[in-house]
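User: Please fill in residues for this 251-position structure.
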């Protein structure tokens, strides 16, 4: 009888230990950092399909979207709220475009371009913030494979008003997204754009993103694979792993 009770106590001790491990992992994921992988080319050349990165969860405070499945632990608003800075690369829940939007609340990653009160406009392929042209410098021309096939891009270095410099890709300055109406960013909201300016579904389409929808700030890439082999296929690592991107800071 004593032996049976001892086995039962040992079993429940293991269950409790496993439960605590899960709770600690969920707490770290919700409050500190979380891994994320890049599924599309909307942030090329900054982020590539197959990049795996860490986002920090504490930069902008916490909302229900900080937790798995957007559990309403924080029913409304944001605790310890802090606004992102212009140029931050952030992950957020996409705003709903009507009641039947199948991608509502999907995870998107873009760059913060417009802050509350800003006027944002694209004119002939050039970005204007508060009616001032954002400077860019041509770096070169590159071919890049996207979901639509091989594309010929021009790479520019763009300098935002706060001094943040980052690379962008442009197919041309005459695509459908290169001329927009002027958009005034409402209070408590942010205008997001992809660095792949002519191949990004962003605030030019679905509008601004509220502070509550932010999940975290993209910090660094910890693993990158071009898709030519799985991680466990070590004999393909030479062709598939992009080692130069490992532990690369995201700016």
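Assistant: Residues filled in for all 251 positions:
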């Amino acid at each position: 009888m004593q032996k049976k009770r001892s086995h039962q106590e040992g079993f429940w001790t293991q269950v409790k230990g496993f439960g605590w491990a899960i709770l600690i992992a969920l707490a770290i994921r919700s409050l500190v950092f979380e891994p994320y992988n890049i599924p599309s080319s909307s942030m090329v050349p900054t982020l590539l399909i197959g990049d795996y990165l860490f986002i920090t969860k504490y930069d902008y405070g916490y909302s229900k979207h900080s937790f798995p499945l957007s559990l309403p632990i924080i029913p409304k608003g944001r605790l310890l709220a802090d606004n992102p800075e212009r140029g931050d690369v952030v992950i957020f829940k996409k705003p709903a475009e009507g009641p039947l939007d199948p991608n509502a609340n999907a995870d998107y990653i873009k760059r913060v371009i417009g802050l509350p009160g800003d006027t944002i406009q694209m004119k002939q392929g050039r970005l204007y913030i508060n009616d001032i042209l954002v400077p860019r410098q041509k770096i070169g021309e590159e071919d890049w494979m996207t979901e639509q096939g091989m594309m010929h891009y021009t790479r520019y270095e763009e300098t935002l008003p706060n001094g943040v410099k980052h690379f962008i890709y442009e197919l041309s300055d005459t695509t459908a997204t290169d001329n927009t109406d002027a958009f005034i960013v409402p209070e408590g909201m942010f205008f997001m754009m992809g660095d792949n300016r002519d191949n990004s579904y962003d605030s030019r389409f679905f509008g601004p993103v509220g502070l509550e929808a932010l999940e975290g700030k993209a910090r660094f890439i910890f693993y990158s694979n071009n898709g030519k082999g799985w991680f466990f296929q070590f004999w393909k690592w030479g062709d598939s792993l992009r080692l130069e991107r490992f532990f690369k800071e995201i700016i």
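For context: The helical segments are 2-31, 203-206, 237-240.
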